[in-house]
Amino acid sequence: TDGHVVRNKATQVFDRIRKDTNEVTNPLKPINPAKDVTVKVGGASANGRSVYKDSTFLYQLDSSILPAHRAYPQVDQWKIVDPLNTEYDQYTGQWAVYATRDLLSGGEVVASKGDRIAGNGFDSSKLGGGLFTLSTAVVDGRNVVTIEATGRYRALVSDDSHEAGWRAYIQCKRTKVSDRVEN
Question: For labelling alongside 94, which of 122, 147, 148, 154 has CA 20 to 30 A away?
């Protein structure tokens, strides 16, 4: 649970003598991804406002911030899965990912906070290879978009000397009029 503190104490048993160690605590960092809707990359939130039929807009998907100096530095999987309501939203195939923290390799900045690091037409060769993939699938009548960190990105952020995080945008087209679309 976010904000939960893990407490741990050991007991030594020697013959019939039992002795407790001191207690140590580790607070867990909150995992807090977020989603918003906007009209342009880096633009103001359009949540609660009108998105007109046949117009394009962006779903902004923010990862959690992975803290530095973690107990378990290895990142085995990192992705955001977003089911779209296909009755109202059509994914256009356009997407992008931006760094929300500096991305380092061996202490050198590979990409600065705010830099685009993946997406349509992005040349990832300067980053040593692709950092993210996007896939779509239809599940229970919904178009599910999955943006996932590649082994290259996970290797870079498994060096836990710095924070890591990313923001993805997926472009959609509003296909039907509604008073309110929940997503």
Answer: 154
Q: Reduced to 3 states, what is the DSSP secondary structure of residue 26?
A: strand
Which CA distances in Å does 15 have to 19, 22, 38?
11, 20, 67
- Three-class SS string for 136-160? EEEECCEEEEEEEECHHHHHHHCCC
What is the spatial distance between Cα 10 and Cα 21, in angstroms, rounded to a whole number? 5
d(CA 16, CA 111) in angstroms, rounded, equals 59
Spatial neighbors of 142 by CB under 8 A, at least 6 apart, are 83, 84, 85, 86
pLDDT digits (tens, 9 = 90+) for 160-174: 788 999 999 999 999
| Token pair belonging to 87 | 């009755």
Rounded to a whole number of angstroms, the CA Rg of the chain reads 21
C-alpha span between 134 and 170 (Å, rounded): 10
Confidence (pTM): 0.84
Instruction: Please tell me the distance from the alpha carbon of residue 145 to that of residue 8, in angstroms, as a whole number.
Output: 40
